[in-house]
């Protein structure tokens, strides 16, 4: 079940491909939990319009970037390795 996410994460990988009307970016992000010093991995999908005149409210991702994530929908991954899937839309 999707819920809200609030965290700071480091982007370690980023790839982009073109689909009809959109750039689709896929990234891997990491967050460290302060309580027990463990790491949570995030699988991120983000959609950017190809037409630069269309509004876009998500910053362009790149490797090495540190992001503050708030009010983003996420769901637990079905691959059973503890990753969380995050999807950003316009």
Layout: helices, strands, pairs:
Elements: E1 3-19, E2 22-32, E3 39-49, E4 66-76, E5 84-88
Parallel strand pairs: 3-5
Antiparallel strand pairs: 1-2, 1-4, 2-3, 4-5
Written account of the structure:
Helices cover 0% and strands 61% of the residues. A hairpin with a 7-residue loop joins strand 4 and strand 5. A five-stranded mixed β-barrel has the order 1-2-3-5-4. It is elongated. The model has no long low-confidence stretch (mean pLDDT 79). It has a single domain (3-88), classed as OB fold (Dihydrolipoamide Acetyltransferase, E2P) (Beta Barrel). The chain is an all-beta fold and 90 residues long. It has no helices and five strands.
In total, the number of strands is 5
Stretches where pLDDT is under 50 for at least 5 consecutive residues are none
**Main β-sheet description:** 5 strands, mixed, barrel
**CATH-defined topology:** OB fold (Dihydrolipoamide Acetyltransferase, E2P)
CATH class label:
Mainly Beta
**Which bin fits the share of residues in helices?**
under 10%
Short key terms for the protein model shown above:
OB fold (Dihydrolipoamide Acetyltransferase, E2P), 90 residues, 5 strands
State the gist of this model.
It is built from no helices and 5 strands. The protein is mostly beta strands.
